[in-house]
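Input chain follows. Return structure tokens only.
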Amino acid sequence: MTSASEGDVLSFARDIRPLFRVKDRDSMRRAFDLFDYSDVADHADAIVGALRSGKMPCDGAWPTSNVEKFQRWIDMGKPA
């Protein structure tokens, strides 16, 4: 399955959830669940801030394209 192109609507299930690994989920679970749409949508601004600063994930920064995809998802209204 391919992810959405620049003009397409992103979805959490198809485009955002797969960006998070099990180890990312496990390390954040005490605060919120990275596999849960509601948790990620509620904390999206903090998550993108941590991604941009390199604080998340703890073992190395995401590629810029993934951070931009996450930001586009936020800008689109965080579609499920």
